[in-house]
Amino acid sequence: MTRFFFACLLAVFPVVSTKSPIFGPEEVSSVEGSSVSIKCYYPDSSVNRHSRKYWCRIGAKGRCTTLISSEGFISKDYAGRANLTNFPENGTFVMDIGHLTRNDSGRYKCGLGISSRGLSFDVSLEINRAPGQSGDVHVYTADLGRTVTINCPFKSQNSQKKKSVCKKIGQDCLLIIDSSGYVSPSYRNRAHLSIQGTSQLVFSFVINRIQLTDAGIYVCQAGDDASADKSNADLQVLKPEPELIYGDLRGSVTFDCALGQEVADVAKFLCLLKNGEGCNVVINTLGKKARDFEGRILFTPKEKGQFSVHITGLRKEDAGYYLCGAHPSGEPQQGWPVQAWQLFVNEDTVIPPRSSVVRGVLGGSVAVSCPYSPKETNSLKYWCRWEESQNGRCPQLVESDGLVDERYEGRLALYEEPGNGTFTVILNQLTSRDAGFYWCLTNKDPRWRSTVELKIVEGEPNLKLPKTVTAWVGEALKLSCHFPCKFYAYKKYWCKWSNTGCRDLPSQQEGPSQAFVNCDQKSQIISLNLNSVSKQDEGWYWCGVKEGLHYGETGAVYVAVEERVTGSRNAGPVNADAAPPEEAIEPRARQVENEVLLDPSLFSEERAVQGVEGPAGGSGAPAAPGSSAGQGGGSRVLVSTLVPLALVLVVGAVTIGVLRARHRKNVDRISIRSYRTDISMSDFENSRDFGAYDNVGASPDTQETALGGKDEFATTTENTVEAEEPKKAKRSSKEEADKAFTAFLLQANSIVAAAQDGPREA
Questions:
Q1: Which H/E stretch holds residue 442?
Q2: Which helix H or strand E contains 650, and what residues bound it?
């Protein structure tokens, strides 16, 4: 029975010719007195939009007589009841014809250009008898799969008698149902009698899920004798006239299915009619999907049993007749409501070709180019991921207005390219879970929607850079990205990622990279420098390549910004014997020495002591014990003793610091006769022979002594004498320091003695 149902449908839906780019309905049916609207499609091009559109009727000899055209012509037969409207923005024109009669049945053409040789499509128009009373027969019409109610009147004397309905088969009338409970097997579970009461003088015969075989003449009867009341009903089952859908190759189409509230809770399906193969399910609400439509079909449920099915990435083989329906099994079955479409795929498309598959490696990236209508420059763009487990649900991941799914933070960006007809989506830091199907969408023309499959393959990312970096507030940061040879001619860039995209940052090239073994000097390093890092600099940074408006591979690094804790630079234990850095010793020693020499307060007490002494340097008259003069003199003597001692100690400490600093610079001071000079270690053949072990790791060819704080070579007039004298062992640094300290103590003792007792011999 099901095969017979599909055979009938295939007979109703003839094969569509795809030779002409003009497309319209092959068969249109209506009833007397009503109207009809016939839509014809044409390729969306500038020439077609401005070409003449026409509707003509084919005569007996094949000649097509124009009845109405877009130039304003209208025939006498159509005057006052027909018009033709062009919709160039949609690539369609529509003929509206009213007050139809049986004489309007026939063959027609809708086309572009001249009627005799223009592009056209054949249409068959059939006008049926209108439902209602025709003599003693009442006419009923019903759509395939729907419900019809036939009313059967009777007289009051037959109100208590048996009610029945039979169907005429030739000269016989086959019993279908009666009030005793009998139902014919072919109508079981879908037909019943409804008796409202004896006062109504009418009973109803109801048939659910109308089938094509239900069409015919029915006889209603009340009573079973010669006085029985009889009435005739003519049931016409309307063919499922398909709705036309015109799609472009590589474009998208949408099927809007409305089956009625009575099947709101029943499983739904969409199937494609194939010659000799029945209707193959494309998708249903039970999770079934055809393999040919994987990744490019969406099922969207709506209210009151309605739903939509969206198909993208159209192919030539997608053209044909589609049925949507409802059945508990999710499969098409005879007797259940269906809705039909006829899909035409236009190969003369304006949608550009693009790859349906992109490949990326683990840790790498992909850039997907998404086309959109050039008329939609200001439309919102989206990117979503198709989920097979959710009946083709596609949750959005990124939008052009700044929304990014939090799971893709730092990994996903959408770039708009006004005037180019495409927008680009970049996804990096790829994982194996990213493999799948993704859709490109806009909030306007759905015909431009497209899909792409992402595959994860073996390999390594081409760009080399760290994954995470820690920066410190107030300090400089340098990020380097290594590019292989094949990206030599591409534009390289650094940018900072945010929800609205990735903002370009100034970067600089640093020459060839050594990160690629099999690469030559064309490999490059591109660096990003942040002079003074702040907390706002924290986040994701991308480096990548670009060629014109086309984005290539990218890499991502996360920069974490932290504040240093005081003393965190030398967090280890302090060594009291460790010398400070060389570069800090000599400047600090000079600073202290200058402070000592330039501070006049250090010399005021010394002048006061000299004022107490006599002209000859002796002491003045002694003061009486206990007198103020004596006490003042004692205080002055004490001050005059301690101040010079402190001064000498400070000068001695500075002197030792300076000597150690100069010694750490690997400069040794030795005596040659009566001169003291600086001799570079490079003047000796081997510094180890003379006890110079400081900085032994440095190259002797690059070390020179400092003379007077300037880098220059020391010269002397005693070179000839020095050459004749035998070499003497040089004191070690420790011996020289001990000697200097001994000399300092003797000098300090002399100064103290002179301050207390006057001049004496040392």
A1: strand 436-442
A2: helix 628-664
* 577 phi/psi in degrees, rounded to 5: -85, -10
Question: Under DSSP, is residue 719 helix (H, G, I), strand (E, B) or coil?
Answer: helix
User: What is the rounded CA–CA span in Å between residue 426 and residue 405?
Assistant: 14
* pLDDT tens digits along 689-721: 433 333 333 333 433 333 233 333 333 333 333
- DSSP per-residue letters across 261-322: GGGTTS-EEEEEEETTTEEEEEEETTS-B-GGGTTSEEEEE-STT-EEEEE-S--GGG-EEE
The residues spanned by each domain of the chain are: 26-128, 145-238, 243-346, 357-457, 468-562, 585-611+634-744
pLDDT digits (tens, 9 = 90+) for 144-203: 778 899 999 888 888 888 899 999 998 899 999 999 999 999 999 889 998 876 567 899
Helix axes 582-598, 628-664, angle to 10 degrees: 150
Q: Rounded to the nearest 5°, which phi and psi values hold at 406?
A: -60, -25
Tokens of 748: 């300090």
Q: Is 26-128 in CATH node 1.10.150.20?
A: no
Alpha-carbon distance of 34 to 105, in angstroms, equals 13
CA angle at 318 for the pair 313 and 319, rounded to the nearest 5°: 125
- pTM of the complete model: 0.60
Q: For residue 401, give both structure tokens.
A: 């207005």
Domain 243-346 class in CATH: mainly beta
